[in-house]
Amino acid sequence: MIDTLALALGHVLLGIALLRLALRGDVDDDPRIIALQAEAKARRKSTNRAVRRNADVAAASEHGDD
Amino acid sequence: MIDLAFLAFIGFVLVLGLKRPFIWVLLYVYIDILAPQRIGYGLITSIPVSLIAFAAAFGGWLLLDKAKTSARFSFRQGLMVLLLAYCFWTTQNAAFPEAAQFKWEWVWKALLFGIFLPLTLTTRARLEGLALVLVLSIGTIVISTGIKTVLGGGGYENLKFFVKDNSGIYESSTLATMAIALVPMIWWFTRFGTVFRPHWLVTGFALALTLACFLVPIGTEARTGLLCIAVLGLMALRYVKRRVLFLAGGAVLGLAALPFLPQSYYDRMATLGQPSGDESASTRVAVWEWTIDYARDNPFGGGFDAYLGNKFTYVMPVKEVDGNTVSVKYKPVTDEARAFHSAIFEVLGEQGYPGLAIWGLLHLLGLWQMERLRARWQNRSGEAEAWVAPFAVALQLASVIYIVGALFQGIAYQPVMLMLIGLQIGLHSYCARVESLRPKEPRTAPARRPSRIRPRRAVTA
Hints:
The complex is a heterodimer. Chain A is mostly helical. Chain A has two helices and no strands. Chain A starts with a helix and ends with a helix. Chain B has three domains: 66 residues, no CATH class; 204 residues, no CATH class; 135 residues, no CATH class. The longest helix of chain B has 35 residues. The relative contact order of chain B is 0.12.
């Protein structure tokens, strides 16, 4: 009787937990990591843009010196 | 009937796994811990549910899991691979090949799953899901044990679990150790759980489950369990805010529980202070001495179950009752093929010094990594990161309690502990990924000490 009660309680909780996990999107894709990846991508883009702009400015000033 | 209920549950989880293959990993964890195929007695015993779950878990990860690209192979997984390979080698050269082969059959599976598990733990939800399934699977056994203890069904070697073969997690001292080890994790869920959000019902369940965990060492009269409770109390002092209140509360609770404990419990715990008065305790010391000598002669280990070769004689007090008179006589007792009764001596005897070094490093690195995570993440706020440091603390405490328990039991390859190691590796890798994506904080140059060299005076013409 006690065993049956404990097994039933444990399995009901396990069943609910697994069902909730199966219905969640963040089991396969972590929202924190996705957000950080997006931030990193945006940072890289802005850094590249700045580098390119600096290079253009340097090239233009060289031409100006000539 | 119970077989059908188990099969229906397993079928339900297999269907859930079609949507999220990671669920099959959790199914294997549940089957490996609770062993429904050993609880049932009909149809389920003839179906290889464990094999099916493992095939689903591994196959699902390999073929369907899109998150596997972000998995990392860590140094500790490498250590487990090394331990697995070394165990294979010692099994081929074992002193008792048949017994060694028998133990190898389950050890390699437990180690392989321990190596595989961290590869699947790529998100916070997965880490939490595994911790929850661990807690609820062991919790199911613990709830039954707790209720039986309260209703007076306890006693050394008297308490009946779901499975009555005294092996794996169903060995009383092992269950007591792992139940106490999971207490900090249970309380983590009351603050940071996302599957079951913090709620008074969750806190109430955690309180009842913690009580049941503490009742396991009492119900089974496992001395190691009492030691684990003491260690948990001592370690918790490091993290609680009101230490004096915590100590006073613990003392009051302990004193209040004393009148409800049976005499047999006091008798058994009394042997903690006088190990020579108990055969189980006396043989431990003798086996450990034998193992040290054995490792001196066989530094590369004797393979699994090398203890079968031991034989020793020691002196033990034996009570003799003659009417109203009880006399104690010291008699020599000869014992042979006594188990190691300690994970450290188990690994030393079976895998020698190289195996012990790998096993020890695996556990010590876990303690260190969790400590580093705690230190680095403890001031993080916000729901996305505040959970990490307490999770690391719960895993670190679980490790410490396991190691203390393992000093007195041969549980070096306990699958639940290998899963906890998997969880530690998974958490460490997850945090490393998050750290690698965060913008690097600009390093501030250390403040320069004022120079002792006098500035040169300006030379004026």
